[in-house]
């Protein structure tokens, strides 16, 4: 019969030999186990001794949990998901602090007797000096992942256990704690350590990101599909592009140890300007190729963080490298007749001081389009300043837009602040989500547009400004005007020309658009199989081009070198697809019903009883349906 624990007798023999002669036969156990046994003997420990169960009081445990709050909060979700993967085995998952005290445990402990169950609950300690050779305590001493099975444990009481523990390190390579899975000694162990390693790495990545509040982080790997996984390198920089921290995978990929990290600049590590990646990071999670200064090719995604003092791209003059990232108007012309007409209209009014209002559903590419207009204009040498009116808190929007003088209000910065309107002088001001601008500010904005000057808060001196004005909205602005929620005079000021970008489901250039997106993902020429293309053509795309881009990006990562097929679409998208179809069906059904009712009303000259009879429904139902469909 298959013996699930073939090494049991070998470990027992090795242990007896070690206890009798102080040495083991070469190769019978690992060096780490032999070293640990030696430490146990040197500490005067006896293999057959009863276990001393050291357990913290409730108060002491609470204090330890408090002191390790960060570790606990990031480890808990990973322990949950590890538990879901191994819930069919009889195992307990344990998190300890750096001294080996259990902070949290979960799982199935039925395979243990009462004493051992107690040993795996929060508050008990697995220090090697107390419990002899064991995965947690020995991993902490050896600073490396350990599996300790059956008789490899020094104390006989622990021979029933098989445990795999991995130390969790912070960015400075200091041990924060361990993650361990303990199970019955007879359970095969070959995959357990790999699983625990992965979970520990996830916890390290989470801790790493949470403990460094830099200005931006760069996520990188030699293979694009590894970005966003536990194997990615993560580098965190401050707003002066100095490296603040690099995770272990990053240290390995870039070939630097954490001691050498101090004061490295972005430009010393990567052959690219951080600003160009920042531009790509705005509003999307684009993966871009880049080279290290040692000429290794990597892929990276930048994540901007909301730290104070971060210079956001867009609020400054657009540099040559940023400009290189923006799409040109003709690049956006991928064959849809409506888009082509809008582009030719825009080209006619370009540089003529005519404000353009860009309308369209979310994700149709309004900001991309606005940026392309700026790039095509003579103002492209001037600044591009984008303001998202929906993202600014109402109390801040005024000072953001208009700026303020020194000492204008309590808490104002000493030197005052230049508002966005003034920053845009000589370039383009893009007011995104303009429909969300509070009414009171609409009046002030209108005055600036009429007088072409800005008066910062706390000042009486107007400053002349000159910028091209673009704005965008996904709301029906005209309807807001009718409802009195948006100033009519401002509405007319903003829309010298209205450019309405079609929703993706209305566009006739889907394959060409897909090709453009594939190009931006460095995957030009990638094949998409017919089934997927047919699905894409019938999907209603509620998230528009942004959604298409995301679906393609994930499919590219999942498909590797093969053509994109159904198996590379995420379940999320397929579910969305199903719901869309159901919604569509419901929509067309209600349209058909409305048509049927209208026709029957006409042929029976409005006689409700006759119509109800013809349609086979009651008069009440007919009235209800007519009311719901606005037919009465
Ligand atoms: N013509 C296009 N070609 C390639 N990608 C596009 C195009 N239009 C839009 N996208 C993709 O869609 C994303 C969203 O575009 P953008 O932010 O300009 O949309 P938006 O209409 O301003 O959205 P929102 O209303 O939500 O602000 C872009 O980051 C890009 O990935």
UniProtKB/TrEMBL annotation:
CDD domains: AAA (cd00009). InterPro entries: AAA+_ATPase, AAA_lid_NorR, GAF, GAF-like_dom_sf, Homeodomain-like_sf, HTH_Fis, P-loop_NTPase, Sigma_54_int. GO terms for biological process: regulation of DNA-templated transcription. The keyword DNA-binding applies. Residues 332-557 form the Sigma-54 factor interaction domain. It holds the Pfam family GAF. Keywords: ATP-binding, DNA-binding, Nucleotide-binding, Transcription, Transcription regulation. GO terms for molecular function: ATP binding; sequence-specific DNA binding. It comes from the Bacteria. PANTHER family: TRANSCRIPTIONAL REGULATORY PROTEIN. This is GAF modulated sigma54 specific transcriptional regulator, Fis family. It comes from Methylobacillus flagellatus (strain ATCC 51484 / DSM 6875 / VKM B-1610 / KT).
């Amino acid at each position: 019969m298959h013996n699930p624990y073939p090494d049991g007798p070998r470990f027992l023999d090795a242990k007896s030999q070690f206890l009798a002669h102080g040495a083991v036969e070469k190769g019978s156990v690992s060096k780490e186990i032999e070293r640990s046994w030696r430490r146990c003997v040197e500490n005067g420990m006896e293999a057959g001794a009863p276990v001393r169960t050291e357990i913290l009081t409730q108060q002491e445990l609470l204090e330890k949990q408090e002191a390790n709050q960060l570790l606990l909060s990031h480890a808990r979700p990973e322990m949950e998901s590890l538990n879901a993967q191994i819930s069919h085995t009889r195992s307990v998952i344990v998190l300890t602090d750096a001294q080996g005290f259990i902070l949290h445990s979960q799982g199935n402990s039925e395979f243990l007797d009462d004493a051992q169950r107690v040993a795996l609950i929060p508050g008990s300690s697995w220090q090697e000096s107390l419990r002899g050779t064991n995965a947690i305590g020995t991993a902490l001493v050896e600073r490396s992942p350990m599996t300790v099975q059956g008789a490899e444990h020094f104390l006989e009481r622990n021979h029933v256990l098989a445990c795999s523990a991995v130390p969790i390190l912070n960015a400075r390579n200091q041990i924060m704690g361990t993650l361990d899975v303990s199970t019955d000694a007879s359970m095969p162990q070959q995959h357990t350590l790999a699983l625990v390693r992965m979970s520990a790495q996830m916890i390290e990545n989470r801790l790493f990101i949470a403990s460094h509040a830099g200005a931006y982080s760069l996520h990188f790997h030699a293979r694009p599909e590894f970005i966003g996984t536990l194997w990615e390198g993560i580098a965190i920089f401050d707003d002066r592009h100095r490296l603040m921290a690099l995770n272990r995978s990053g240290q390995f990929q870039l070939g630097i140890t954490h001691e050498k990290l101090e004061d490295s600049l972005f430009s010393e590590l990567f052959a690219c300007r951080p600003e160009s990646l920042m531009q790509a990071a705005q509003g999307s999670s684009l993966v871009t190729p880049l080279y290290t200064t040692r000429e290794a090719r990597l892929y990276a995604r930048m994540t901007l963080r909301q730290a104070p003092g971060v210079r956001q791209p867009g609020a400054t003059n657009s540099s040559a490298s940023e400009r290189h990232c923006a799409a040109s108007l003709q690049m956006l012309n991928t064959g849809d007749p409506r888009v082509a007409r809008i582009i030719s209209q825009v080209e006619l009014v370009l540089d003529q001081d005519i404000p353009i209002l860009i309308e369209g559903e979310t994700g149709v590419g309004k900001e991309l389009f606005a940026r392309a207009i700026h790039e095509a204009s003579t103002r492209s040498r001037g600044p591009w300043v984008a303001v998202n009116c929906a993202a600014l808190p109402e109390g801040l929007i005024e000072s953001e837009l208009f700026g303020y003088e020194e000492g204008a209000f309590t808490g104002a910065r000493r030197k005052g602040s230049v508002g966005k309107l003034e920053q845009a002088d000589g370039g383009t001001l893009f007011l995104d989500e303009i429909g969300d601008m509070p009414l009171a500010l609409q009046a002030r904005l209108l005055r600036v547009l009429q007088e072409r000057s800005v008066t910062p808060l706390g000042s009486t001196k107007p400053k002349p400004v000159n910028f091209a004005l673009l704005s965008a909205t996904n709301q029906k602005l005209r309807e807001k005007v009718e409802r009195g929620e948006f100033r009519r005079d401002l509405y007319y000021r903003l829309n010298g020309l209205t450019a309405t970008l079609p929703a993706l489901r209305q566009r006739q250039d889907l394959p060409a658009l897909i090709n453009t997106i594939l190009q931006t993902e460095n995957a030009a020429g990638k094949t998409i199989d017919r089934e997927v293309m047919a699905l894409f053509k019938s999907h209603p795309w509620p998230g528009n081009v942004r959604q298409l881009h995301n679906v393609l990006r994930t499919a590219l990562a999942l498909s590797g070198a093969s053509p994109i097929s159904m198996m590379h679409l995420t379940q999320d998208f397929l579910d969305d697809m199903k719901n869309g179809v159901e919604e569509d069906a419901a929509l067309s059904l209600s349209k058909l019903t409305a048509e049927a009712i209208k026709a029957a009303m006409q042929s029976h000259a409005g006689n409700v009883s006759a119509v109800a009879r013809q349609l086979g429904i009651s008069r009440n139902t007919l009235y209800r349906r007519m009311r719901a469909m606005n037919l009465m």
